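so i finally got all the pieces together for this one. its two components total, 635 residues if u count the protein bits. some of the lines might not be protein, just check the labels. i wanna see the whole assembly predicted at once instead of chain by chain like last time, that was a mess tbh
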Amino acid sequence: MTKLSKYTPRQVKLGPNGEPLKTSAMIASIAGPDQRTAPAPFGHALVKLAETRPDIVGMTADLSKYTDLFVFSKAYPDRFYQMGMAEAVLMSAAAGMAREGFTVFATTYAVFASRRAYDFICMAIAEENLNVKIVCALPGLTTGYGPSHQATEDIAIFRGLPNMTIIDPCDAHEISQATAAIVEHKGSVYMRLLRGNVPLVLDEYGYTFELGKAKVIRDGRDVLVISTGLMTMRALEAAKVLRADNVDVAVLHVPTIKPLDTATILAEASKGGRLVVVAENHSVVGGLGEAVAGTLMRAGVTPTFRQIGLPDEFLDAGALPTLHDRYGLSTEAVCRQIKGWL
Amino acid sequence: MNHPSSASPARGANVSLQERAYRIRRNALRMGEVQGQGYIAQALGVADVLAVSYFHALKYRPNEPEWEGRDRFLLSIGHYAIALYSAMIEAGILPENELETYGGDDSRLPMSGMAAYTPGMEITGGSLGQGLGVAVGFCLGLKRKSNPAFVYNLLSDGELDEGSTWEAAMSASSHKLDNLIGIVDVNLMQADGPSTSISNFEPLGPKFEAFGWHVSRVDGNDIPALIAAFDAARALQAPKPRIIICDTKMAKGVPFLEARERNHFLRVEADEWAKALDVLDKARATAIIRGEP
């Protein structure tokens, strides 16, 4: 996408009701105005789990507030460790505590875990498959703050890391369940986090999270959307809209990116005649899209295949709804793309 | 060749620390000979520090490397594994008869120290700058469990170039980790040349002091000075982490190797290993005749 020169003067842009458009910074919720939400689902789930699990401790690098870990630190101040704005020591100390038998939740932003602390996560945590759960806010494009805070390639980075389980939950319902599941799971985990007032979506579909399982949320005969994270919410919204145009969309939700539920993906993609679209809040390079493509190719399953995801670019700063539309993640953009491919 | 008896005298036996250091150096040379090259100069240089660590300071059970009450010894400088294996063989944690597997296929003694391979190896080192941060986590965990064990972390001067070491140094003091004892081997040699010319870390003591640490700096090849520094570090009541900066001589104990200018990764000719062992053995014999400890 061509960017305007920084020497080109700009005009104020106004929203539909004449209001100025504001950058949705770190504290913003991705919830729409009429959406049901739950506050800080990760923090509250962790507090509940910690009641019966004294081995759970929380650590952060000056981001307890913006990763919802503050709920835990208030409930269990003596089990909370403030490591300062220092992701290297956050991850290495998390490894040390895990070696002493604790189940450690280490939180920061996804950009800092994946880019800055990678070697520490790789050698101190993953190489020994230690019981550290890395839970990171601002995954993909969930802030308008610009590339410094937009983790567009975090999944690509961690997919190459042996032992690392990768989870991209869709909503508050799933975050609560996934938090419980990763406490039970022995080993290293990277979980993407939606924070603040997080949309509630999947409870309506009677959905239950299971680590390593992809699940069909709704069936449909024309299109199979294989989605993860918040894009499952967008895919479900798009499916409702497209229904009016007589396009029948199935949604297969894949919250666990690694290990990938290849059996379910192959079974669904093999059901003939459907356009297969992978939708993710991540770069089209190295994420779920390419993981699914590789799975299909290796098995000789070759449906028409398309990707909805972020371009291989450093993204713009701005207002999040504008950016989601610009980069193809909004419900409207998802509908537009799918119709264009049919 | 005049090998000492293969069975190491048990800890607590009436064996001097000088004798332990000699036997650690001997183990290192024998492992070096297996590969024909390696981080021998570091091993010879740090042998006295390891003798004092394993035969004076540390609590451990040779047959129970995961004993909950042990002091944790974290080797962040993975390439010093040859030195630590030498000490752990002497300590009876590792069997002496595996010495010749050093660096070989399926060996428990890989060239860079890794936790999953070797009993008594607490962490996977090698990616320098990680050990002190991991040590912070061990210390926090031990405190949560009210376990009075100490956590030792052996670093090198070159490793201090890594900024993450200083994140950890600040964090350790911020968390008042009085169960942490860092040991820096200052041997003044890195891969590209003399350490202070690569990135000058001096004045090192004042740096750690400014970070809130208790600092002592000693000749790392002077066993009585090391004993005093370790004792002081353990006895200190102040709620702060402790660092023992040890100035050591690369290849200490084998003068013809000490004299080599570029000795970070030492290449030793096939016939020189026997000579090096001979030099060590003769120096020991002379010391015994003089009645030195």
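Strands of chain B lie at 37-38, 72-75, 151-156, 180-186, 214-219, 242-247, 266-267.
Chain B touches chain A at residues 114-116, 122-124, 126-127, 129-130, 132-142, 144-145, 163-164, 167-168, 170-171, 174-175 (CB under 8 Å).
anyway lmk what u think
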